[in-house]
Amino acid sequence: MTKTNKFGTKELCLLGLMAAIVVLMSATPLGYLKIGTLSVSLLMIPVSIAAIALGPVGGAIIGAVFGFTSFAQCFGADPFGTALASYNIVASFASCVLARVLAGAGAGFVFKLLSKKTNDYVAYPVTGIVAALLNTLFFMGSLVLFFGNTPEVAGWKGDLNFFAFLVVAVGINMIIEPVAAGLVTAGVGTALNKAKFIGVNAA
């Protein structure tokens, strides 16, 4: 099982590496796949790795890095995010940052639970899948909760009610994000396990 009681040099290096990967991905097409007005994010993959290697705290920290890169786009880089921030900057911060912190921490708790019930090689992909689903649920849910009455979200939502909209929106993301997160998290997690960075063989 992964050690989460303290961050030593190895853990801090991994934390810094995951943070750097998030920043790099957020600045390139590697981080977001645009589908119309939707932005399918692949940035939960490094968040999942941090959650596996460093527990809920590590997942929350890298989730926060992801969130801040998303929040930064609300200042001109992303027209949709900029429009929402003009209505309520605090709600935009919650949607971008707090939602990702919760998703990262949740992924860490999921891995801790799974690693007690099964072997790590099963827990890795499942954690990646759950992390992506939590990100979509928290982010999309917060958009509807905070901005459901704005022209941008109301027009996007159309005549669908709150729950129907979530099902449709999450359904689109569900095709890509969890599959990619599960596969890549499994591969990277296995490699880090063999390198004794994480897992039952970690030093």
Quick structural gist:
It is built from 7 helices and 2 strands; from the N terminus they run αββαααααα.
Explain the overall architecture.
- With 203 residues, this protein is mainly alpha-helical.
- It has one domain (9-194): Arp2/3 complex 21 kDa subunit ARPC3.
- 75% of the residues lie in helices and 4% in strands.
- The chain contains seven helices and two strands, in the order H-E-E-H-H-H-H-H-H.
- It has a two-stranded antiparallel sheet.
- Strand 1 (32-35) and strand 2 (38-41) form a beta hairpin.
- Helix 2 packs parallel to helix 5 (120-147) and helix 3 (79-87) packs across helix 4 (89-117).
- 44% of the residues are buried.
What is the fold named in CATH at topology level?
Arp2/3 complex 21 kDa subunit ARPC3
How far apart are the first and last residues' alpha carbons, in Å?
Answer: 11 Å
SSE order, one letter for each helix or strand: HEEHHHHHH
Q: Helix segment count?
A: 7
Name given to the CATH architecture: Orthogonal Bundle
Q: What is the name of the CATH class?
A: Mainly Alpha
| Mean pLDDT over the residues | 83
Query: What is the percentage of strand-forming residues?
Result: under 5%
C-alpha Rg, in Å? 17 Å
Biggest sheet: strands, sense, closure? 2 strands, antiparallel
Per DSSP E runs of 2 or more residues, the count of β-strands stands at 2
Q: What structural class results from the helix and strand content?
A: mainly alpha
- The count of domains is 1
**What is the molecular shape?**
globular
Major sheet: arrangement of strands:
1-2
* Low-pLDDT segments, ≥5 res: none
Residue share in helices? over 70%
